[in-house]
Amino acid sequence: MQNVRLGIIGVGNMGKGHIKYLIKGEVSGVTLAAVCDAIPENLKWAEQELGEAVLRYTDPYEMMDSKEIDAVLIATPHYSHPELSIACFERGLHVLCEKPAGVYTKQVREMNEAWEKSNVVFSMMYNQRTNPLYRKLKDIIDSGELGEIKRTNWIITNWYRSQSYYDSGSWRATWAGEGGGVLLNQDPHQLDLWQWTIGMMPTRVRAFCYFGKHRNIEVEDDVTAFVEYENGATGVFVTTTGEAPGTNRFEISGDRGKIVIENNQLTFWRLREPESEFNKRFTGSFGSPECWKCEVPVEGVNPDHKGITQNFVNAILHGEALIAPGAEGIKGLMISNAMLLSTWTDGWVDMPIDEELYYDYLQQKIAESSKKKKEAMV
């Protein structure tokens, strides 16, 4: 294969965004061959923007069976991601899936198991993994320069959303329509980066999720969570859509200092000797290790969605290693599921979570949901 024929399922906001850079030729080795959407207005837009050269479908399975595509970019509402991905795997089609991987880990695990039986490339649209800031952070941690991690804190409260945003679609911010709130809609990138950069998943979670605290919605819009890691480290994750001005500050403390990412800068408070070594030798009362404040240079720009798409295409054509393997989509989702389950059960949740218990709770919420997902279906 010299060129990947790509089909896009979902011509909503995200789908349109992907289409725009693809038709400009900003990703090499790929041709937009087809699009699919059940909403007439979206297909009309595609006709006007793309002409007759790009095939249009209302049924995603018809597009999958057309033999006109080699790969699929899934940009549909959350619930449908695993189902559509599995259908592609079964047909030998490569898959690039928008975040989140799904709504609950049980369905995502089934998706991953189906991929393992296939022989296709599977990637997640975790475009923040291409951000030089977080790549540099991961590099420093992986190199051991920060030492053993002791604590992680992420305050991500700049996801401000007004009531009018939630009122723009009856499926928004509902259990039946989206399957969650700020954790599932706004925070998947941060939850993925949280575990990806430090190379650790929590071992247990205690969270406090508030539902409709700031807006007239039924899902979570304010969350504070505490996590523990196998090495004894702890972490805090704070997020909301109801705070202005918001904050985006990621802080990681280790044996050799502290790293902070805030305002698009990476600062390393670097200890001249590990804290553990200083503690062993120091005999005074109030001393502390010598510390240097280092503004770490971060080179390059974030290729964002285009970067992940190019990597996906390169993986198909040339065997390039994936930046965001699809099977890793379950990790951030498990953290968000654990936070909700902890709140619903009012206690600690061990990782990996009890997927059946989470599924049962979610079904109860869906049954009680005030809005259904009819508008959210492709």
Keywords:
six-stranded parallel beta sheet, 15 strands, single chain, alpha/beta, nine-stranded mixed beta sheet
Helix-strand makeup class:
alpha/beta
Largest sheet: 9 strands, mixed
Number of helical elements: 13
> What is the succession of H and E elements?
EHEHEHEHEHEHEHHHEEEEEEHEHHEH
Task: Tell me the helix content.
Answer: 25-40%
Order of strands, main sheet, comes to: 14-13-12-11-7-10-9-8-15
Compute the CA-based radius of gyration. 22 Å
Oligomer: single chain
Contiguous runs where pLDDT drops below 50 for at least 5 residues: 373-378
Average of per-residue pLDDT values: 96
Global morphology: globular
What distance lies between the first and last C-alpha atoms, to the nearest angstrom? 30 Å
Total count of strands = 15
Percent range for β-strand residues: 15-25%
